[in-house]
Amino acid sequence: MSATNEPQYLLLWKGIQSGPFTLALIREKLGAGEISRMHQVNSNGRWIVLDEFLEKQGGDSDARRRAEAEQRETQLRRTFEDQLATERAQRTALEGRITEAEERSRLSHLLPPQVTSRPPPLPASQQQYIPPQGEPFQTSPASAPPRTSGLAVAALVTALCSFIPYVGFVTWILAIVFGHVALSQMKRDPALLGRGMAIAGVSIAYALVAIGFIVGILIASTNHRF
Q1: Would you say residue 80 lies in a domain?
Q2: Most C-beta atoms within 10 A of its C-beta, which of 15, 170, 179, 204?
Q3: Domain range spanning residue 183?
């Protein structure tokens, strides 16, 4: 009988069918461990255990069973040998690292003292100023966080309020006072911001004073003519 005319069988395991397979393919899968003898096979329209089916088919002698067992044993031996080789490689690498560390530790006394004991110098931006003994530590003004002068803001606001009728008779004086005080504080404390607002407020106030003075002279000269 040719290979194409060989009978084929369905296999059943836990309610799941597979196949059809020839008898030779079933024996091959059994030897590879892909199926077990507890599978069921459909023979003559009924399901029977694969072990019983193979005994009925004949040719499933003890020699074949031993061959299957030897094949499985060979696979297990190969897997064990691969795992053992991997463990040996890891152990060899670990022993090499330990040996290298011991060698470095043994030769560490030969290195110059400044190499092993002195840490690398810090950058100039990270160095901290240590005051001499007896001198109190003072924080550098440059290290303080920048902040906006409230008097500079007040100078600009009061200068702008000078354009409001009746209110401007007083606010220009406040703008000049606030602006000069803010500029004086900024000279003493460089961390203060708002120099532009202080100068703007003082400039607006002085400009309004100059305009008012010129207008007053023109009005006085006009009244003197008439």
Answers
A1: no
A2: 179
A3: 148-225
pLDDT at 132: 59
How much of the chain exceeds pLDDT 90, in percent? 8
Q: Which of 43, 60, 77 is the last residue of a domain?
A: 60
Point out the residues of the chain with pLDDT beneath 70: 1-4, 58-67, 109-144, 226
Domain tally, the chain: 2
Output the 3-class SS for the chain. CCHHHCCEEEEEECCEEEEEEEHHHHHHHHHHCCCCCCCEEEECCEEEEHHHHHHHHCCCCHHHHHHHHHHHHHHHHHHHHHHHHHHHHHHHHHHHHHHHHHHHHHHHHHCCHHHHHCCCCCCCCCCCCCCCCCCCCCCCHHHCCCEECHHHHHHHHHHHHCCCCCCHHHHHHHHHHHHHHHHHHHHHCCCEECHHHHHHHHHHHHHHHHHHHHHHHHHHHHHHHC
Is the residue at 66 inside a domain?
no
